[in-house]
C-alpha cells in the first residue's frame, strides 16, 4: 500500500482507479494494480495536496479490509517513507519519524 500526499505535475499511480475512500477525514482516490510480479498493490492518492500530517496507517488497512480489498488476517511487515519525484528534483524534510504498532 502507498499513500500519496500529492500527485502534481501529471504523476500517476500504478493500476487504475477503483473509486474513492474517506480515511482519517480526508478524501482519497483509490488505485489498484500489480507491480509486475502479480502482487496486488493499492495506492491512496489525496484528492488535494497535503503538505503535512500524521496519518493513522491502521485506518487505511481497516478501510481496505472493511471494503473486502484485503483479508483482515493480513499483517504489516515493512514501513517506508519518502518521495518519488515525477520530474525534476524533490526534497523531503522530516523532523521526526516514528512508528507505533498496537
From TrEMBL:
The keyword Hydrolase applies. One of its GO terms (molecular function) is cellulase activity. Keywords: Carbohydrate metabolism, Glycosidase, Hydrolase, Polysaccharide degradation. It comes from the Eukaryota. One of its GO terms (biological process) is polysaccharide catabolic process. Gene3D superfamilies: 2.60.120.180. The keyword Iron does not apply. PANTHER family: BLR1656 PROTEIN, XYLOGLUCAN-SPECIFIC ENDO-BETA-1,4-GLUCANASE A. Belongs to the glycosyl hydrolase 12 (cellulase H) family. This is Endoglucanase-1.
